[in-house]
Write a structure and sequence with these properties.
The structure is a homodimer.
Chain A (H helix, E strand, L loop, with lengths): L10 H12 L3 H13 L2 E2 H8 L3 H13 L3 E6 L2 E6 L1 H15 L10
Antiparallel strand pairs in A: 1-3, 2-3
Helix pairs in contact in A: 1-5, 3-4
Chain B binds a DNA duplex through helix 3 and helix 4.
DNA sequence: TTGTTATATTGCAATATTACGATTAATAAG
DNA sequence: CTTATTAATCGTAATATTGCAATATAACAA
C-alpha cells in the first residue's frame, strides 16, 4: 500500500504524525536549524550550506512551507525564507503534549 | 532514489530525523498514546484498539522497539509491551532541544 | 529585447513504506 | 500428541519518498 489509513485515527494523531513526518528527513532538520541560526536566508544559501541539489532543497522547502512552518518572501530573483513563529509555536505545543506524556505507574512488564 | 543522503548530515540531525520518522505514522502515535494511558498491554489489545491487521501492528511495534522506545516481555503466548522510560527520556531531550530553538531576532523577510 | 541569475516545476529512476494474507513459531491447554 | 491461541515473519501489491537532470518561470540588468 504505502498509504496510511488516516481515517481510523483521531485528528490529533494525524496532525502529530504529519508534523513528525516533515521532521523525519535530516535535510529538513538541517534547513530548520539553519533558519533558526541565521534567522532568514535565501534558497541558494541553503543549497550551499547543505550540499544537496537545488531542486532537492526547493522540494524540501515546499514541504516545510505546505505545513506552515516556514514562509518565503520574494526579493527580486531570490526568495527569502524564515521560520513562521506563530505556526512553529502551535506545532511545538502539539508535539510537547505528545512527548511529555507521563506514565501512571512505573510497573511494567 | 527514496534514500536519504545521511552521510552529509550531522549525527544529531540524523538522530532527530530517525525519531521523528517513527512518529510520522498515526498508528505508531496511537500505539504510544495507548501505552502511556494503559501503562502496559499485549499486542492483541493494540490490534483491537487501533483497528489494523495483526501483522501491521506487529510491524509498527517492531519499529518502535528497534528505536528502543518500547520494550516487550513474553508472557505465555502473549507479548506485553510498554514504554522504555529511560530511552523515551533521552529521545525527549533530543527532540526538545530541536523544538525549543529560539530565533535570535524576530526581523524576518 | 537579450542575457543573467535565482528558484520552481516536471519527469523519472531507485528505494522505502504501508498494509495484509498466508504461514510459521512458540507456548499453553486438553 | 493434538489443538488452540498469540505474535512474528514472509511475500507481495499499492503507494510514497528521495534526489536530480532538464526545463520552465520570474525578476532584474544591460
Amino acid at each position: 500500500m504505502g498509504l496510511a489509513k488516516t481515517e481510523i485515527f483521531t485528528e490529533e494523531q494525524n496532525k502529530i504524525a504529519l508534523f513528525a513526518k516533515v521532521f523525519g528527513h535530516p535535510a529538513r532538520v538541517a534547513i530548520l536549524q539553519h533558519l533558526f541560526k541565521i534567522n532568514a536566508c535565501v534558497c541558494g544559501d541553503l543549497v550551499d550550506e547543505i550540499g544537496l541539489a537545488q531542486p532537492t532543497i526547493s522540494q524540501h522547502l515546499k514541504e516545510l512551507k505546505n505545513l506552515g512552518l516556514i514562509k518565503g518572501n520574494v526579493e527580486g530573483t531570490s526568495v527569502c525564507y524564515c521560520i513562521d513563529e506563530t505556526n512553529w509555536k502551535h506545532m511545538k505545543t502539539l508535539m510537547n503534549e505528545f512527548l511529555n506524556q507521563d506514565l501512571q505507574t512505573n510497573s511494567c512488564c
